[in-house]
Amino acid sequence: MTKGYHMSDMKDRAATAVGAPDHGGAVPGQTTTGPVSEQPSTMWAGWAFFAGVLMVIVGAFQLIKALTALFNQHYLLVSSSGLALHVDLAAWGWVHLVIGLVLIAAGFGVVTGRMWGRVLGIGLTAVSAILNLLDIAAYPLWSIMIIALDVVIIYALAVHGAELKSA
């Protein structure tokens, strides 16, 4: 009498065929050499790289806002009294200048897989989003665009930032 096979038996047979990887991922008869990464790189590492590039771009946007506040205050829609936080526009420009420069440096840190870049990037983009919310009356479109990019950067670094290190 012949033995009948069920679908579950076929699945088990396919997994144990000669040359097929076992459940550990190794092919029978082969040895693995070399360092094994703790966390394999996935397609999501691109999000972290993208966040680093976006940080450089947002830093450049911050520099443009800073230079506008420092040298061309007539371009703004409101004076310093129209802002949510009443500060001198020149002082506000210096704040944006510092944040922009540090964001650019942190963006390069993220692109090279540095942990300090990710931590600094999440912190600075959160501060950037809050500051841009405070001066949204002066630069409405710039502020909304930078806040949206800051949120994307925070998401990418918080969720997928560690994958860049192993890429």
Q: What would you note in describing this structure?
A:
- The structure is a single chain.
- By secondary structure, this protein is mostly helical.
- The chain has a domain at 54-166.
- It is 63% helix and 0% strand.
- The chain has 6 helices and no strands.
- It has helices spanning 7-15, 45-71, 89-111, 115-134, 140-160, 162-166.
- The longest helix is centred in the middle third of the chain and has 27 residues, at 45-71.
- It is elongated.
- 27% of the residues are buried.
Contiguous helical run count: 6
Largest sheet: none
Sequence of secondary-structure elements: HHHHHH
Counting copies of identical and different chains, the oligomeric state is single chain
| Average residue pLDDT | 75
Q: Count of DSSP E strands?
A: 0
Distance between the termini: 55 Å
Structural class: mainly alpha
Outline, from the CA principal axes?
Answer: elongated
Residues in β-strands, percent: under 5%
Unreliable stretches (pLDDT < 50, length at least 5) are 7-20
User: What percent of the residues sit in helical stretches (DSSP H or I)?
Assistant: 55-70%
Q: What is the CA-based Rg, rounded?
A: 26 Å
Which SSEs are present, and which pair or pack?
Blueprint lengths: L6 H9 L29 H27 L17 H23 L3 H20 L5 H21 L1 H5 L1
Short description:
With 167 residues, the protein is mainly alpha-helical.
Offer a few descriptive terms:
167 residues; elongated
